[in-house]
Amino acid sequence: MRISAVARRTGVSQRLLRYYEEQGLLRPVRLANGYREYTESDAIAVGHIRALLAAGLPTAVIAQVLHCVHDEDERPVPSMCPGMISHLRRERARTAEAITRLQASQQALDTLLAAALRQPDVRDEVERGASERSPGRREPTG
């Protein structure tokens, strides 16, 4: 099937399908006229790629483990290929570290915001800004 048919079927843009090919995730056959010819398994692989991306895996890791994923009850499930568990654990640890950093950033911002809102001049500015955005508020005349 042509790239447009795969795009329609999977909901993935043609540009993204070309990107997956550049990353080595898809390998469509090239016809004599240069067109890409995708198979049924390519369309299924797109679903697996999307699921792995949604799990936070980078395309470099997906390229290494994509062949280990199969469908079970219409959802992608990893097979026990060599290295699969270590890849998944490594990416999970990376995600957990990122969440921890983001939570620390959020707490620091909350602290800064709370301190700023305790300042009288900032409180007045916030209240003025809120009243200026209120519907029906009239500007004082001369």
Please explain how this structure is put together.
The protein has 142 residues and is mainly alpha-helical. It folds into two domains: 1-81, Orthogonal Bundle (Multidrug-efflux Transporter Regulator, Chain: A, Domain 2); 83-134. The chain has six helices and four strands; from the N terminus they run ααββααββαα. It has helices at residues 3-10, 14-22, 40-54, 59-65, 84-118, 120-133, and strands at 29-30, 36-37, 69-72, 75-78. Strands 1-2 form a two-stranded antiparallel ribbon. Strands 3-4 form a two-stranded antiparallel sheet. The radius of gyration is 25 Å and the shape is elongated. The model has no long low-confidence stretch (mean pLDDT 86). GO terms for molecular function: DNA binding; DNA-binding transcription factor activity.
List the helices and strands and how they pair.
Blueprint: H1 3-10, H2 14-22, E1 29-30, E2 36-37, H3 40-54, H4 59-65, E3 69-72, E4 75-78, H5 84-118, H6 120-133
Antiparallel strand pairs: 1-2, 3-4
Protein name: DNA-binding transcriptional regulator, MerR family
GO molecular function, one term: DNA binding
Domain HTH merR-type: 1-68
In short:
By secondary structure, this protein is mostly helical.
- Helix/strand class: mainly alpha
Query: What is the CATH first-level class name of the largest domain?
Result: Mainly Alpha
Question: What fraction strand?
Answer: 5-15%
* Rg over alpha carbons: 25 Å
Average the pLDDT over all residues and give the rounded result. 86
CATH 2nd-level architecture of the largest domain: Orthogonal Bundle
Biggest sheet, spatial arrangement of strands: 1-2
**Total discrete domains:** 2
**Percentage of helical residues?**
55-70%
What distance lies between the first and last C-alpha atoms, to the nearest angstrom? Answer: 72 Å
Q: List the uncertain runs.
A: none
SSE order, one letter for each helix or strand: HHEEHHEEHH
Please describe the biggest sheet, giving its number of strands, its sense, and whether it closes into a barrel.
2 strands, antiparallel
Shape designation: elongated
Question: What's the helix count?
Answer: 6
CATH topology of the largest domain: Multidrug-efflux Transporter Regulator, Chain: A, Domain 2
Number of strands: 4
